[in-house]
Design goal:
The complex is a heterodimer of chains A (72) and B (391). Chain A has 72 residues and is mainly β. Chain A is built from no helices and four strands. Chain B has three domains: 185 residues, FAD/NAD(P)-binding domain; 116 residues, 2-Layer Sandwich (D-Amino Acid Oxidase, Chain A, domain 2), CATH 3.30.9.10; 49 residues, no CATH class. Chain B is globular and about 65 Å long. The chains are: A mainly beta (72), B alpha/beta (391).
């Protein structure tokens, strides 16, 4: 998918969730400044194109289900 | 497209009370209450403690099947395990949230509210005539419903607020990361709740034990991740339990976020109100949110009914909801939030010293007011806390 015309530089890493560990508690949603995290029929989804790589969601996860991955 | 007057998203305490109050205030209205999970009240993401006076505004706990335990004492543990027993003027209760939430939803249904479970709100937009259209998803597919007023009672992860254009984001320092087990077969005073503070126990939060029966309790803690040594909430909790309640059987487990912020600057817009956790209406000092959720739900339900009857569901009209909440508790939460910020600067040595000071007060005179007065005399560091509280 083509980036939007005024997109800022792509982050080198973005957040990703391990759904085998995630408890779907929703804690990370309001922590995300660009609101890139959603619960979709109870599965956590992170929009790689919206994530800015700020890491604010990573440490607060009570079960460490979130990690940074290369933004391939 | 099915039409409703009021659509309430989320059948927790805020949503069920909001729906019931809207219907009670204006019985001619069509009120739909939707819940994402297949059973109202599950999963439980809560320590289940609630104060008696607030609870009684909505339901009678005496003999109720959803009231697990009556509480009459608070035991505060300093970081060095010094125990302080505080006399409590009010009684508290530990709920069975699965049953409690179901009872509130049943009350709403008895008022004439249509309750629909296993139904997730997946998106929302304005219609040409100024109503809201909400896309709903169930196991059998998607449908869209229209409503004059949408009440978002969809918790920490609120999407309704986001879709309506409200800023529901939370600074990381104001998010408690929580983990909790139900522990069976442990020893404690079953008439008391236990709270322990400490940078090595629960940095930025506290650890708790809330009894559910003589030998079973919710045992959990909340931390602020920015203050963590790198461990997550579950790892802190495992260490606390290994030290204090090693023999217990873990028969339940949950995690979740508690927003210890102040109320959102705006909790409403045209045709939308959000309440409870979704609107950051949790007591920022205690992390308690059940009664606040019900109180805000009651205000939102009544505001919705009055607005629809008046034919005006504009932002200006619904501002009365926000103002009523701020007058009732929102302004008080702002003060508590300032206290929380001041307390964040105090260290374990301070709390250990305070615990010993308080234990010097005879137990029957140990009210919170007297504790605070003694603390100010013996611990001048607290004066800025008091100053910020009263400013």
């Amino acid at each position: 998918m083509a980036p939007p015309p005024l997109a800022r530089a792509r982050p080198t890493e973005v957040a990703a969730v391990d759904l085998a560990v995630c408890d779907r508690c929703g804690l990370c949603l309001p922590l995300c400044p660009p609101e890139a995290i959603h619960l979709d029929f109870q599965d956590l989804l992170i929009d790689r194109h919206t994530c800015t790589g700020c890491r604010k969601c990573i440490a607060p996860c009570p079960v460490s289900a979130l990690a940074m991955v290369a933004n391939a | 497209m099915p039409d409703h007057d009021v659509l309430v998203v989320g059948a927790g305490p805020a949503g069920s009370v909001a729906a019931a109050e809207a219907k009670r205030a204006a019985p001619e209205l069509d009120v739909l209450l939707i819940e994402r999970d297949p059973f109202v009240g599950t999963p439980v993401r809560c320590a289940e403690g609630v104060g008696d006076p607030g609870l009684r505004e909505f339901a009678d706990p005496d003999g109720a099947p959803w009231a697990a335990r009556k509480i009459t004492r608070v035991i505060i543990l300093a970081p060095d395990d010094t125990e302080v027993k505080v006399a409590w003027s009010d009684v508290a209760w530990i709920l069975d949230r699965t049953r409690f939430d179901a009872a509130l939803a049943a009350q709403a249904a008895a008022e004439g509210v249509e309750v629909q479970v296993a139904t997730e709100a997946v998106g929302m937009g304005r219609t040409a005539d100024g109503r809201w259209a909400m896309r709903l998803r169930t196991s059998s597919g998607e449908e869209t419903v229209r409503a004059h007023v949408v009440i978002g009672a969809d918790g920490v992860e609120t999407m309704v607020g986001r879709w309506a254009g409200l800023d529901t984001r939370v600074p990381a320092r104001d998010m408690e990361s929580c983990a909790q087990y139900v522990l069976d077969g442990i020893d404690f005073d079953a008439d008391a709740i236990y709270l322990q503070f400490g940078d090595h126990i629960a940095p930025g939060g506290y650890a708790w034990l809330f009894p559910k029966s003589e030998r079973s309790a919710n045992v959990g803690l909340g931390i602020v991740a920015l203050k963590s040594d790198g461990r997550n909430a579950r790892e802190y909790l495992d260490e606390w339990i290994a030290r204090r309640y090693a023999g217990g059987a873990r028969t339940g487990y949950t995690v979740g976020g508690v927003i210890v912020h102040h109320t959102l600057k705006r909790t409403h817009t045209d045709g939308v109100m959000i309440c409870g956790d979704a609107a950051h209406m949790v007591n920022p000092l205690s992390g308690g949110g059940i009664v606040n959720a019900m109180k805000s739900g009651r205000l939102a339900g009544r505001a919705a009914a009055a607005a629809i009857r008046a034919g005006d569901t504009s932002q200006a009209r619904l501002a009365s909801y926000h103002q009523a909440w701020m007058d009732l508790l929102g302004e008080a939460h702002l003060k508590y939030y300032r206290i929380k910020q001041a307390l964040a600067d105090l260290d374990d040595a301070f709390f250990n010293g305070l615990a010993r000071t308080v234990n010097g007060i005879p137990s029957h005179k140990r009210t919170l007011g007297r504790v605070f007065a003694h603390a100010l005399v013996r611990h001048p560091q607290l004066i800025p806390v008091a100053a910020r509280f009263f400013v």
